[in-house]
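Before a colleague's protein record goes any further, I have to sign it off. What it holds is a sequence and that sequence's fold in token form. Would you go through it and say whether the fold makes sense for this chain? The record follows directly below this note.
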Amino acid sequence: MIIHSSDVDILAKEYNSDKFAIGIKQNLYITKVKDKADFVVAIRKNSDNHVEVIKELKDPAHTHEYSFQTVLDVVRERIKKQNIQIGYSKGFNSFVLQLFIEF
């Protein structure tokens, strides 16, 4: 199971706890000096390491805050906290969530 930092942030808020993780930050910088680079990419469509120029920085943790598993965990916790009963014997699971998504 892969856990993303945004998942930890969401679960920490939901469970009101700061004991989930430590913050890790990684910065990438563009340089034209190959000797100072940790790895090399090219801005050419036919390159093996093709990349695109970023015109606007976006934090994926804000644009895609909830993963599928995090939605399941958060909804289950809220259902439990609010003592909500749903009419499905297996409870709120991935099948039920997928039905919502398809609807």
In short: The chain is about 35% helix and 0% strand. The helical segments are 5-14, 60-63, 68-81, 94-102. The mean pLDDT is 79. The radius of gyration is 20 Å.
